[in-house]
C-alpha cells in the first residue's frame, strides 16, 4: 500500500479497472532506437543536486535505484556536463574518465531493479555560475554582455568560433561514449531551458548570420550537428533523445512553429526520441513548471548574484494557475507535424493524464515532480491503489536542489545529508 503521508486523501485501494487500454499501453514494453524498455514511462531529468564537486554521490545512486524499483522504464540522470566548463554550478556531474567506475555503480543499481537509465548530456554555455573555469571562455551562440558572469568577473560571453564548435561537438560525442561505457542505455541531449544548444536555437541568444543563425532551420544547424555526431558514435547501441523547449516565454504559449521546424531537422538528423518541454531557466522558469516558483526555488546557491537574479525572477512571474498536462496544446501541434517518437512532459500526475497522453498519440510519458513526490507512484497506479499523485506542485523541490541533502519532495521525504556527502566507491574489481 502507498505511504499515507504521500496521499492524505486516500480512503482505500480502488482496484484498477482492466478496461484501460491506454494505461496498459503505457505499461507495456517498447523500443527507443536500439533499446528495449519495459514500459513507456520515463523519469524526467530533475537536477538531483547530488554530485560532490564533479563526482556522483551515493545519494545519486539511491535516488535512481528507487525510481527504477518503483517501475519506471527509464530514469534520467540530470545534467551530466560533457566537460568541466560545461557545468552550470560547481557541484555538477562531469562525464570524465575518473567518474567511469562510479557511474557504472549507478547504472548497475538501476539495471538490478529491471530499469534502464539515460544520461542527460549537456553544456551550459553562458548559463554558468562557476567560480572557477578551466579555460575561462564563456561560449554562447553570440557574444555580448554576460550578466550571469558579473560577480566572477567574466563580463562578456563569446560567440563560438568554428574551432570551439568542433571541440564542444566532440565533447558531446566523448560524453556519450563514456556514458555508454559506464552502462547507460540512452543519452538525452539537452537542447532546452537555456543551455548552450538551446542558446543556438533561441532568437534571443542567437544573432548569428547564416549558416548558424537566421531562421529557425539555421539556428538548429549546430544542435543537429551535435546530434548527428552523437548518433554516429553511439546510436547503434544507445537510445539518443533530444530535449527541447517548444516555446521560451509563457506569453508565447502555443506558438510552436519555430520549434516544429527545429524538431523536423532533429528528426532528419536521426533523433530516436524528442522530449517536449518549454521555458528558459532565466527568462521564464515558470514555463518549465507550468506554475509559479516559491522564493526558495529562485534563491539559488546563496551567492549575491543568484539571490539578486532570484529576486528579479520572483518579480517577473506571471499569475499562472497550474493545470495538469499544461504543455499538451503545444505538444499536440508538434505531434501533428512529426513522425518520430515523441515523449510528452509537463504536469502528468494521474492515471487519467497518462491515458490522455497515450490516446493523443505520444510514444512515451515523462514525469518529474510526481516521481520525486513518490518514486513508487507507477507501481501504485498499476496496482490500482492510487489514481492521482499527491504532488501539490508547490515547487519547493526546486529549492532543495541547492540544499545539503539534494533534491527531494518536502512533503514526503527528509533528504539524506550523509548519503549526499558520501562519494560512490566502486567495488575493488571494477
Ligand atoms: C527539482 C527539479 C529539477 C529539475 N532539473 C532539471 C534538469 O536538470 N534538466 C532538465 O532538463 N529539466 C529539469 N527539470 C524540469 C523537469 O525535467 C520537467 O521538465 C518539469 O519538472 C516538468 O515536468 P513535471 O510536471 O512532470 O514535473 C527539473 C525539475 C525539477 C522539479
Question: Could you please describe the fold and organization of this structure?
Answer:
- The structure is a single chain.
- The chain has 430 residues and is α/β, with parallel strands linked by helices.
- The chain has one domain: Aldolase class I (TIM Barrel, Alpha-Beta Barrel).
- The protein is built from 17 helices and 15 strands.
- The protein has helices at 21-27, 58-69, 100-112, 162-181, 196-201, 216-219, 221-234, 257-268, 285-289, 295-298, 304-316, 328-337, 351-359, 369-373, 377-382, 396-400, 417-421, and strands spanning 30-32, 35-37, 41-43, 51-52, 55-56, 74-81, 116-122, 139-140, 144-145, 156-159, 186-191, 239-245, 273-277, 342-345, 364-367.
- Strands 3-6-7-11-12-13-14-15 form an eight-stranded parallel β-barrel, surrounded by seven helices.
- The radius of gyration is 20 Å and the shape is globular.
- Mean pLDDT is 92; it is low at 9-15.
- Flavin mononucleotide binds next to strand 6, helix 9, helix 14 and helix 16.
Brief characterization of the structure:
The chain has 430 residues and is α/β, with parallel strands linked by helices. The chain is 35% helix and 14% strand.
Keywords:
TIM Barrel; alpha/beta; 430 residues; single chain; binds flavin mononucleotide; three-stranded mixed β-sheet; eight-stranded parallel β-barrel
Amino acid at each position: 500500500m502507498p505511504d499515507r503521508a504521500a496521499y492524505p486523501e486516500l480512503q482505500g485501494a480502488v482496484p484498477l479497472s482492466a478496461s484501460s487500454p491506454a494505461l496498459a499501453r503505457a505499461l507495456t514494453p517498447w523500443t527507443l532506437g536500439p533499446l528495449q524498455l519495459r514500459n513507456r514511462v520515463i523519469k524526467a531529468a530533475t537536477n538531483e543536486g547530488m554530485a560532490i564537486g564533479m563526482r556522483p554521490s551515493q545519494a545519486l545512486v539511491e535516488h535512481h535505484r528507487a525510481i527504477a524499483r518503483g517501475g519506471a522504464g527509464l530514469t534520467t540522470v540530470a545534467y551530466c556536463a560533457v566537460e568541466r566548463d560545461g557545468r552550470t554550478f560547481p557541484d555538477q556531474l562531469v562525464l570524465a574518465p575518473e567518474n567511469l567506475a562510479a557511474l557504472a555503480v549507478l547504472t548497475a543499481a538501476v539495471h538490478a531493479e529491471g530499469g534502464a537509465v539515460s544520461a542527460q548530456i549537456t553544456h551550459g554555455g553562458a548559463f554558468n555560475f562557476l567560480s572557477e573555469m578551466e579555460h575561462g571562455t564563456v561560449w554562447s551562440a553570440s557574444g555580448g554582455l554576460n550578466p550571469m558572469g558579473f560577480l566572477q568577473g567574466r563580463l562578456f560571453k563569446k560567440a563560438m568560433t568554428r574551432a570551439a564548435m568542433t571541440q564542444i561537438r566532440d565533447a558531446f560525442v566523448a560524453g556519450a561514449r563514456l556514458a555508454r561505457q559506464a552502462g547507460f542505455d540512452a543519452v538525452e541531449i539537452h537542447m532546452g531551458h537555456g543551455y548552450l544548444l538551446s542558446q543556438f536555437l533561441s532568437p534571443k541568444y542567437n544573432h548569428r548570420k547564416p549558416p548558424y543563425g537566421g531562421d529557425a532551420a539555421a539556428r538548429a544547424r549546430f544542435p543537429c550537428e551535435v546530434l548527428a555526431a552523437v548518433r554516429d558514435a553511439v546510436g547503434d547501441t544507445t537510445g539518443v533523445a533530444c530535449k527541447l523547449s517548444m516555446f521560451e516565454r509563457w506569453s508565447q504559449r502555443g506558438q510552436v512553429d519555430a520549434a516544429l521546424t527545429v524538431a523536423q531537422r532533429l528528426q532528419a538528423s536521426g533523433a530516436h526520441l524528442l522530449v517536449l518541454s518549454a521555458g528558459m531557466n532565466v527568462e521564464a522558469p515558470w514555463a518549465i513548471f507550468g506554475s509559479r516558483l516559491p522564493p526558495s526555488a529562485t534563491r539559488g546557491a546563496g551567492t549575491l548574484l543568484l539571490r539578486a537574479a532570484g529576486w528579479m525572477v520572483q518579480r517577473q512571474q506571471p499569475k499562472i494557475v497550474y493545470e495538469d498536462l499544461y504543455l499538451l496544446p503545444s505538444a499536440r501541434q508538434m505531434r501533428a507535424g512529426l513522425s518520430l517518437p515523441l515523449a510528452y512532459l509537463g504536469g502528468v500526475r494521474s492515471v487519467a493524464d497518462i491515458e490522455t497522453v497515450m490516446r493523443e498519440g505520444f510514444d512515451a510519458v515523462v514525469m518529474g515532480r510526481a516521481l520525486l513526490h513518490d518514486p513508487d507512484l507507477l507501481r501504485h497506479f498499476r496496482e490500482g491503489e492510487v489514481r492521482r499523485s499527491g504532488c501539490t506542485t508547490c515547487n519547493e523541490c526546486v529549492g532543495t536542489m541547492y540544499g545539503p541533502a539534494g533534491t527531494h519532495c518536502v512533503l514526503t521525504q527528509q533528504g539524506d545529508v550523509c548519503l549526499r556527502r558520501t562519494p560512490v566507491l566502486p567495488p575493488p574489481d571494477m
